[in-house]
């Protein structure tokens, strides 16, 4: 029985997917040659391909640039108070809203910067926060 189970497992996990995997690998290596990956340690390669998945949210706050705001403004203080009370899943959802991804890919968190800007609209209560994901700008009405 053990030999039969081993053969079935080998077929299901290896033989049955061998051709599609080889096709995928050939296409992947055409765009990302393996010789380029050898310069990275496995942990570095994981961050490059997968992105950072753990965050120091206070460091993120420290790296923010403000436009038409000061760090001491009440709107900014309220924003960070609420943000730090959110569960991590919601904080990652904010990151996805801001950047289009719930991870910071290829960056060390110390190097990741985004901007919180006042859109300077006449009736700020009539506007919702919105983001420019290309430039990592959060437009936060007062």
Automatic annotation (TrEMBL):
The active site is at residue 134. GO terms for molecular function: ligase activity; ubiquitin protein ligase activity. Residues 1-142 form the HECT domain. It catalyses: S-ubiquitinyl-[E2 ubiquitin-conjugating enzyme]-L-cysteine + [acceptor protein]-L-lysine = [E2 ubiquitin-conjugating enzyme]-L-cysteine + N(6)-ubiquitinyl-[acceptor protein]-L-lysine. GO terms for biological process: protein polyubiquitination. SUPFAM superfamilies: Hect, E3 ligase catalytic domain. It comes from the Eukaryota. The keyword Ligase applies. It is an enzyme of class 2 (transferase). Keywords: Ligase, Transferase, Ubl conjugation pathway. The keyword Isomerase does not apply. Coiled coil: none annotated. Its EC number is 2.3.2.26. This is HECT-type E3 ubiquitin transferase. It comes from Menura novaehollandiae (superb lyrebird).
């Amino acid at each position: 029985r053990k030999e039969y189970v081993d053969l079935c497992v080998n077929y299901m996990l290896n033989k049955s997917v061998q051709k599609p995997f080889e096709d995928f690998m050939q296409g992947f290596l055409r765009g990302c040659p393996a010789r380029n990956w050898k310069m990275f340690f496995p942990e570095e390669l994981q961050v490059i391909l997968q992105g950072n998945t753990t965050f120091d949210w206070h460091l993120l706050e420290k790296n923010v640039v403000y436009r038409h705001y000061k760090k001491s403004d009440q709107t900014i203080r309220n924003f960070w108070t609420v943000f730090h009370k959110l569960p991590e899943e919601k904080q990652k959802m904010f990151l996805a809203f801001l950047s289009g991804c719930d991870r910071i890919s290829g960056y060390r968190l110390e190097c990741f910067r985004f901007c919180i800007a006042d859109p300077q609209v006449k009736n700020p209560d009539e506007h919702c926060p919105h983001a420019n994901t290309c430039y990592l700008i959060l437009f936060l009405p007062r």
